[in-house]
Amino acid sequence: MTTGRKKFYFGRLNIIASYEDKRNYILHGLRPGVSIDDRGNSWSFAEISELSNELGNFIHGYLVKFSDSFEEIIRPEQGQFDETPVEDRVEAKAQYFLHVKSGLIAYHPVGNQIAQKTFQDKFCNVFEKAHDDLFVDAEIQTIEERYEIFDKIRDFQVVEKITFKLHPSNPNNTPLWSDIDNDIKSIGATSYTEEYSVKPGSTKGLSKDRILEDPKIKGKFIMAEDGYGEGQATGTTQGERKTITTGNNPTTVIVLEREEKSDVLESLKGTLIKIFDRFR
């Protein structure tokens, strides 16, 4: 990546919990002083602030990876090297912008230190810890470029299985999957799981035409691509059995690295608008 530029990924923070004020509930989950430990490193949120533009209210902050370590120093009077302990040394920090109303989140992973999947997992782990892990389930689902998974399904000679795990939308849906979303909401469900499958090794498999043309099946894949769950397809191509999953073709944008968070948000606005337009 070119120096002075940042690559932001887009996802949706889905929160399954009971709350009266979404903004306050989110801010409580991002509060300072809460951390988790994992494999010698700690994770926490830092520099939480709020800002807004014509798209609505956002929360800005950093997911921070830190640890206790030792730094090499020199003792000039002795002409010797030595080590001194350093507490809570920052290993990496990932910037993010969270749109309060929709749960849409734009975030900047940091190389191998905070990879995309690591950001999603640790963000939710710390958020749940801030709520004492009580009656809360948080998950960040990747927002994808639409329809990419259908091109991959077309490459299958045989489709053995398709599965869906979906969350109801909050707040908006789209005509492409509104019927599915409304069905989930109508019975008060917080998640929906479905599977179509044939016996492994079947030479006939599921109807690929039906998968690619049926509005409800397509709608479930698109709902997953829009950040409300996950869709998978397992099949064979060129004699090889493989599984493809939504979330592997994320929506991203590269912006200039800027000091002012409002300038960074302005650079993200075009992509945010395109995602919001899916629901208009």
Descriptive notes:
The protein is an alpha+beta fold. Helices cover 26% and strands 41% of the residues. It contains seven helices and twelve strands. Strands 1, 2, 3, 4, 5, 6, 7 and 12 form an eight-stranded antiparallel beta sheet that branches. The protein has a four-stranded antiparallel beta sheet with strand order 9-8-10-11, covered by helices on one side. The radius of gyration is 22 Å and the shape is globular. It starts with a strand and ends with a helix.
Low-confidence stretches: none
**Based on helices, strands and strand pairing, what is the structural class?**
alpha+beta
State the helicity in percent bands.
25-40%
Quickly count the helices: 7
Quick description:
Helices cover 26% and strands 41% of the residues. It is an alpha+beta fold. Strands 1, 2, 3, 4, 5, 6, 7 and 12 form an 8-stranded antiparallel β-sheet that branches. A 4-stranded antiparallel β-sheet has the order 9-8-10-11, covered by helices on one side.
